């Protein structure tokens, strides 16, 4: 199955999360714990294998059932159980700020594989165990991370060139012109979709100008309440997607030789809080 075809429009993603929040709020009698319930439902979704997710005909209904089950469990008398270990913290203070800025745009698997392998020199077998992948699977994210970091440094576009390409990308996306958008992308372009496990975004990076163009047009499919505008993102022109005046996605672009070489789509609502002041 072509994973680029599995993308879901932003309007559908946000409607789905709002629906799940409504379900949780109604069952719990308030909105205080609804976010946590919905986050847990999405964690369970991403805990499934790709084949298992593909076998679910109605993801929204499946998620709603999971939300209902979690709420029922929370409303039941608690049972004692083993304490859950906290996440392993990364020693980010030992990494330069410049590198951290670049690493922040990588997917979680790529960041983990790159830092553990290149920065801390962890043995490949141990890296695979930590990331939860086999050795060969782990090598792919690490290699793409290195390629992405090199792309950010090599053949940088001027501010004017970057702005012109970014605006052309916006125009192509707004017009849903997949062919034109593909022409603005490098043949080996890669797109990363960071949903943070909190929206049903694409899990794997998308590679190649045709597939990336299709996935972007699919994600940004026209909707009466969806707008796409250019905006400064990390000091360069990027794209901001709004749904009902709420920022639903922020897209940054790495551009070299007049073509986009990397696309970073942030859909994680936690990372978008600074773009939505006053919203919860």
TrEMBL record:
Stored Gene3D superfamilies: 3.10.450.50
Q: According to the lineage, what is the superkingdom?
A: Bacteria
Q: Which InterPro entries match?
A: ECF_Sigma-70_Domain (IPR052704), NTF2-like_dom_sf (IPR032710), RNA_pol_sigma_r2 (IPR013325)
Listed SUPFAM superfamilies? NTF2-like, Sigma2 domain of RNA polymerase sigma factors
This one is known as: RNA polymerase subunit sigma
High-level lineage: Bacteria, Bacillati, Actinomycetota, Actinomycetes, Kitasatosporales
